[in-house]
Amino acid sequence: MSAQPVHEEPDPQDPAVILGLLPERERATFRREYRKRVLAAADDMSGYRDLQAFLHRWALRARLLEQRLREEPDYYETLAHEAAAIRAGTVTTVPIEEALAEALGISADEAEALWTEKVAAARAARQNRA
Question: Which InterPro entries match (predicted)?
Fold first, then answer.
């Protein structure tokens, strides 16, 4: 019986893997934010969890951007056009409560209560991180 080399898939949360997947225009932002979190983790070990979460988010972002740009090469141009339309007020919008009610099949009052609860939880989580 001979030993076979083990082929390991690269860790998707490896910063080098993330950089390799990211479009050029995203790389400087990733590097800057990564450096900030690495330095924070070096000074305070509690920052390590933040670094792990950061790498997880960017790994997901890199894979999604890679897929999106493959499917829609002019994605960034489309995004810029949509952002300009939003700023100009020429886009039809729907209140979040209405969208939630429709998507979840609940009443407008239930949707409003749900959204209020989600916003309060997000604020509390943000305050706990600070």
Answer: DUF6247
